[in-house]
Amino acid sequence: MKCLFRRRKEARPGEIAAAALDLFVDKGFAATRIDDIAARAGVSKGTVYLYFDSKEALFKAAVEATMLPALEEAEALVADDAKPAADMLREFVFGWWQMIGSTSLGGVPKLLVAESGNFPETVAWFHEAVIDRALAAMTRLIEHGIARGEFRNVAAPVAARIVFAPMFSYLVWRRSFEQCLRDLPPADEFFALAVDLLAHGLSAREAAK
Amino acid sequence: MKCLFRRRKEARPGEIAAAALDLFVDKGFAATRIDDIAARAGVSKGTVYLYFDSKEALFKAAVEATMLPALEEAEALVADDAKPAADMLREFVFGWWQMIGSTSLGGVPKLLVAESGNFPETVAWFHEAVIDRALAAMTRLIEHGIARGEFRNVAAPVAARIVFAPMFSYLVWRRSFEQCLRDLPPADEFFALAVDLLAHGLSAREAAK
Amino acid sequence: MKCLFRRRKEARPGEIAAAALDLFVDKGFAATRIDDIAARAGVSKGTVYLYFDSKEALFKAAVEATMLPALEEAEALVADDAKPAADMLREFVFGWWQMIGSTSLGGVPKLLVAESGNFPETVAWFHEAVIDRALAAMTRLIEHGIARGEFRNVAAPVAARIVFAPMFSYLVWRRSFEQCLRDLPPADEFFALAVDLLAHGLSAREAAK
Amino acid sequence: MKCLFRRRKEARPGEIAAAALDLFVDKGFAATRIDDIAARAGVSKGTVYLYFDSKEALFKAAVEATMLPALEEAEALVADDAKPAADMLREFVFGWWQMIGSTSLGGVPKLLVAESGNFPETVAWFHEAVIDRALAAMTRLIEHGIARGEFRNVAAPVAARIVFAPMFSYLVWRRSFEQCLRDLPPADEFFALAVDLLAHGLSAREAAK
DNA sequence: CATGAATGAGTTTTCATTCAT
DNA sequence: TATGAATGAAAACTCATTCAT
Predict the structure, then answer these.
(1) Which one, A108, B46, C153, D128, has the greatest CB density within 10 A?
(2) pTM score, whole prediction
(3) In CATH, what number does C63-208 get?
(4) Is residue D127 predicted with pLDDT exceeding 80?
(5) What fold, for B62-208?
(6) Residue B95: beta bridge partners?
(7) A123, A176, A198: residue with CB nearest B116
């Protein structure tokens, strides 16, 4: 019994941060009330302030605490293999969608876009800790393809961003236009075509003609 | 003199809506104070309420009033010509960037993403009036390419979304990560490569091989 | 034409005051907007300020200007005749109801009761100019009855107030509970019984027994 | 100590409602500021909103919460005894004045008259819960007197209203013309004469003559 | 004289934050 | 630790009043 209670107690900050993140993603920072966060986490308003100094601190903690563990897992996605780059690209996209995009972490980019004006430091942190790292990995992947003669000799850092564009867009569209999405294609179909188009677009064979 | 003043007077609501849109895009709906909007428009707080019933009404009006005139111009971008589809694609993307993406209208998508949870009707309106129309135009363009034998036989509506992804992403990134954008490529370079990759990706020649 | 226009112009202040009084009676001083008064008087908001210095001044003017002409007429109601006092009482009550109580002047007491805390001077004026005068007249009437041996020897000033109570109450009830007045008796019946009860109550014959 | 504090805490809403009623009666609904209510109740502005949703809700609650307990006590005033009706009438009037009229509850009628245009539902509630009940009781009392051969055969419901008129009027005059009441007779004298006049006016003995 | 657009002081209302229990 | 009542600063909104035309 003591053990269960202990565990509960220690999990509190995490539960609060998770509840906060969900609500921030859904309604934005300003429109989310501490009361709502407390209610969703099943604690009282005062308890929130026991673990977090302020609403702003809670925002930053919620974003960072939720991203950090995911980052480690994500890193593993980009094992520098000797596989064909097109295959790696496909695996990267689908792996990301499964592990991150389709989970509740997928809401973070939308949230940071929305609050970019109000939380410059958090945005900067996210950019460094997540975006830059992901871009670097994708850049390496593309350079790997170029080196293998598989891909055309394009500007890899620019191409990396173009590869991320469908992933980012799908994520944000899904979260923002939920109500009017009769015809947003399912993720499988969307990403299959996206990878197909990008791989063909990058392919050296066509250009060789 | 009288004429100038008259013009000023009649322009008031538009000036206020424009000021409001700028601030909403920058700081979000909740973090924007009516006082700030009034100050930016060069009027007093009371004047804002002379023309708009509430902050919410101002939000809706700002979005719709700014988009409507642009929509008409935008429609003209998609003249159903007999040109090669790849050329049309390039012209569409660059025309859009010049006329919309790089202007203050480019902030609207970011704003609606941010406030999607709080303004479902406005988001729905935008989806119908802007997104659906743009998707339809792009779908036609791709089908045109397929019909000419220029493009592969892909699912045009899905491909249309993939084409919009870099445009949407660049817009949003630019507005959201201004501070940490040392290495976001300039629009010209980004869109040149994006169009290049997508046109190659769609091209029927490679597949024919 | 000029004549008509002139007349219209000169009548403006009175029209505004009348419109104001109606609205003040209906909604109270604070809940009445200058815009509404202007609209009801068929002029613009600025015009109201052409004739009245402030909303408070308009309140006072509306009350006083509407009461003054009525006061003169009312004075005539109490001709010190040699008639039986009971008859005079009956004539006074019904005459008052016809000339004042049932007209739009009947709203003034309710208004002054409502605003007594906010307009002490106007209330004081009304008390002196109207209530005191009316009480004095009624006191004289009762003393006349006592002197004739018709009425018992009661405290005339107190009895005068008791005589006014049904008149005042009917007026106020009528204006305040309009909505739920299924069973407020018609004025004729109410005042007939009131005069009957009071005349009998004052009558010396019963006491003589 | 804990007990005292507890009691204090639970009494808060009632204290606020009481403070509100006092001020509403004095200055009217619109002219009363929430700040003033809070100050008089000895709490902060925010605390008022802890217990009441809005100023309007506070108005309704203040009226209803203050009247309800009084209604029960009041009901007991009209024990259907076998006493002479004239005695019952006297007891009713003086009992009412002691228990209600002279207390802070006595301000409610004035308040509802003043705000009748703005709070139709509250006025309707008061009419049903208070006025109709009181009229019914008084009507029964008069019918009792008629049945005993003590009173003349008058229309009892109309007479009931006439009996209430001095009570209502004295209440309202007292609260509205405080400043200029040099010569309003004291309650004892006023009601003694009122009861005397009405009892005589209703008496069957005189009519028999 | 008449207008109505513009103003800004004053009020209601919300909600992050504190603190006694 | 945990609670939730209490606070008050900050923001939306109203409307009497002014003034250029």
Answers:
(1) A108
(2) 0.89
(3) 1.10.357.10
(4) yes
(5) Tetracycline Repressor; domain 2 (1.10.357)
(6) none
(7) A176
